[in-house]
UniProtKB/TrEMBL annotation:
<dbReference type="Pfam" id="PF07731">
    <property type="entry name" value="Cu-oxidase_2"/>
</dbReference>
<feature type="domain" description="Plastocyanin-like">
    <location>
        <begin position="32"/>
        <end position="146"/>
    </location>
</feature>
<dbReference type="Pfam" id="PF00394">
    <property type="entry name" value="Cu-oxidase"/>
</dbReference>
<dbReference type="Pfam" id="PF07732">
    <property type="entry name" value="Cu-oxidase_3"/>
</dbReference>
<feature type="domain" description="Plastocyanin-like">
    <location>
        <begin position="158"/>
        <end position="300"/>
    </location>
</feature>
<dbReference type="InterPro" id="IPR034271">
    <property type="entry name" value="CuRO_2_AO-like"/>
</dbReference>
<feature type="domain" description="Plastocyanin-like">
    <location>
        <begin position="396"/>
        <end position="522"/>
    </location>
</feature>
<dbReference type="InterPro" id="IPR008972">
    <property type="entry name" value="Cupredoxin"/>
</dbReference>
<dbReference type="InterPro" id="IPR011706">
    <property type="entry name" value="Cu-oxidase_C"/>
</dbReference>
<feature type="signal peptide">
    <location>
        <begin position="1"/>
        <end position="22"/>
    </location>
</feature>
<protein>
    <recommendedName>
        <fullName>Multi-copper oxidase type I family protein</fullName>
    </recommendedName>
</protein>
<dbReference type="GO" id="GO:0016491">
    <property type="term" value="F:oxidoreductase activity"/>
</dbReference>
<dbReference type="GO" id="GO:0005507">
    <property type="term" value="F:copper ion binding"/>
</dbReference>
<keyword id="KW-0732">Signal</keyword>
<dbReference type="InterPro" id="IPR011707">
    <property type="entry name" value="Cu-oxidase-like_N"/>
</dbReference>
<keyword id="KW-0325">Glycoprotein</keyword>
<comment type="similarity">
    <text>Belongs to the multicopper oxidase family.</text>
</comment>
Length: 553
């Protein structure tokens, strides 16, 4: 039957269609990216809409679905979206960052096609071009477990996505000009929950409704630019069940610190008096606290939400202790039937240690952020495409950054150039993120999930490995680093491609605090990596070059 394809198309919401084939099901979306004028904080401003929605449409998928998204760029600047946390197995062509993709030019379109292979969980997508992330174009992406795979909790009554943001009333172009002129971003102007902030004047529509005594799943993601946000719900506790693709030990929390780029899934039971309640998100680790609220309404509700909001925790020691309470659920099934804990990461020998220290420089009136003294610059030709076409040597050198920083990195001269590490296929690697600054950091790695084995104050030394969690650290895609602290992650680089390791603090990523891991399969085989797709946008050096010989089995 290989040559015969049977397809049924069903219309779905958000410009989507579902195709059922002899292979895994297909979801088709058509997205129209435009500017619009909204007043999220009460001041009219330009925002980026997808299909007239802010935040953008939710993608509701199931493990192994094929997702096809035709993105029409109708704004006046080149545009790209990344699918943060989607591993893009063998397929960094679809990652949607400037090291893998030419941006979609104004007035043109590009179709992403990727499979959410062997993944479950809660994720976000957002723009990676310029400062577009500050204007919108972000939204939730969920991957449900397949029906036959047991999930370690009962089916909730409903499943809600909560996108949190710190927010500026300045346009993305004004913010970009500010950064380009050598200045950093000031404090944001407010916080949003699903693009809104309830006024508390009795006229607010509820963001979500709950039936009494029923349990609901909330997927809470921080798609903001720089601030950790603490999330809580008046008079309700939250049972944590999943984060960034892993089922976790189900602890109960009154509030959760959601660092930039991170996602959590919690269960909330409607077991309080029937009325309105506020969900609250507020900035952490700043003197001036900014707060947003949104209404959850009981369906048989009889009254307004109390104006008294639950207090947020203070200081980052509380947040560090919360991180230490997160544990992988070793007995739960993953996206496949085997238990998550069947992979014994703690007994694998480390083949390479990379210690990354972030730093900042204002030399020559230009603000740059760096890792180990190298501030990444995107060449006009995406790194991955240059590599595939055999012209990488014309654009960048591998391994110009050392695996550990020089002694006085804070005062070292920063070099601005493409920052590409050559990583050996299938090696097991330890990456240390060390933060000598007074500000929070949050890092994301494309193409993989990793084991976040430690987050500790001070500086890292090899002796600190004695304190790693080598049994049930959560496998995830984003890790925070507290001020004057470090974090350690472990992973196997078994996904061939070009993968971005970046600060989730977007001004830092925009100004160079990121790098790429080039993971090449020596076999040049389709078993390890897909060929460049026929519809790949070409730009820069490769625009008119003949296509290289494709990979074969």
């Amino acid at each position: 039957m290989a040559g015969v394809m049977f397809m049924v198309l069903l219309c779905l919401s958000a410009g989507a269609m579902l195709g059922v084939q002899g292979e895994d099901p297909y979801l088709f979306f058509t997205w129209n990216v435009t500017y619009g004028t909204l007043s999220p904080l009460g001041v009219p401003q330009q925002v980026i809409l997808i299909n007239d929605q802010f935040p953008g449409p939710n993608i509701n998928s199931t493990s192994n679905n094929n997702i096809v998204i035709n993105v029409f760029n109708n704004i006046d600047e080149p545009f790209l979206l990344t699918w943060s946390g989607i591993q893009q197995r063998k397929n960094s062509w679809q990652d949607g960052v400037l090291g893998t993709n030419c941006p979609i030019l104004p007035g043109t379109n590009f179709t992403y096609h990727f499979q959410v292979k062997d993944q479950i969980g809660s994720y976000i997508y957002y723009p990676t071009t310029g400062m577009h992330r500050a204007a919108g174009g972000f939204g939730g992406l969920r991957i449900n477990s397949r029906l036959l795979i047991p999930v370690p909790y009962a089916d909730p009554e409903d499943d809600y996505t909560v996108v949190l943001n710190d927010w500026y009333t300045k346009s993305h172009t004004a913010l970009q000009k500010l950064l380009d002129s050598g200045r950093s971003l000031a404090r944001p102007d407010g916080v949003l929950i699903n693009g809104k902030n309830a006024m508390g004047d009795g006229k607010d529509e509820p963001l979500f409704t709950m039936k009494p005594e029923k349990t609901y799943k909330y997927r809470i993601c921080n798609a903001g630019l720089k601030n950790t946000l603490n999330f809580r719900i008046q008079d309700h506790t939250m049972k944590l069940v999943e984060m960034e693709g892993s089922h976790v030990v189900q602890n109960v929390y009154e509030s959760l610190d959601v660092h930039v780029g991170q996602c959590f899934s919690v269960l909330v039971t409607a077991n309080q008096a029937p009325k309105d309640y506020y969900m609250v998100a507020s900035t952490r680790f700043n003197k001036q606290v900014l707060t947003a609220k949104g209404i959850i309404r009981y369906t048989n509700g009889k009254g307004p939400a109390s104006p008294e909001l639950p207090e947020a925790p203070v200081g980052w020691a509380w947040s560090l202790n919360q991180f230490r309470s997160f544990r992988w659920n070793l007995t739960a099934s993953a996206a496949r039937p085997n238990p998550q804990g069947s992979y014994h990461y703690g007994s694998i020998n480390i083949t390479r240690t990379i210690k990354l220290v972030n730093s900042a420089s204002r030399e020559g009136g230009k603000l740059r952020y760096a890792l180990n003294g190298v501030s990444h610059v995107d060449p006009e030709t995406p790194l991955k495409i240059a590599e595939y076409y055999g012209v990488a040597d014309k654009l960048f050198k591998y391994d110009t950054m050392q695996d550990s920083p020089q002694a006085d990195i804070a005062h070292a001269k920063i070099v601005s150039q493409p920052n590409v590490l050559n990583l050996t296929f299938r090696n097991f690697v330890e990456i240390i993120f060390e933060n000598h600054e007074k500000s929070m950091q949050s890092y994301h790695l494309d193409g993989y999930s990793f084991f976040a084995v430690a987050v500790e104050p001070g500086t890292w030394t090899p002796e600190k490995r004695k304190h790693y969690n080598l049994l049930d650290a959560v496998s995830r895609t984003t890790v925070q680093v507290f001020p004057k602290s470090w974090a350690a992650i472990l992973l196997t680089f078994d996904n061939a491609g070009m993968w971005n390791i970046r600060s989730e603090m977007w001004e830092r990523a925009y100004l160079g605090q990121q790098l790429y891991a080039s993971v090449l399969s020596p076999a040049r085989s389709l078993r390890d990596e897909y060929n460049i797709p026929d519809n790949t946008l070409l730009c820069g050096l490769v625009k008119d070059l003949p296509k290289p010989e494709p990979y074969s089995i």
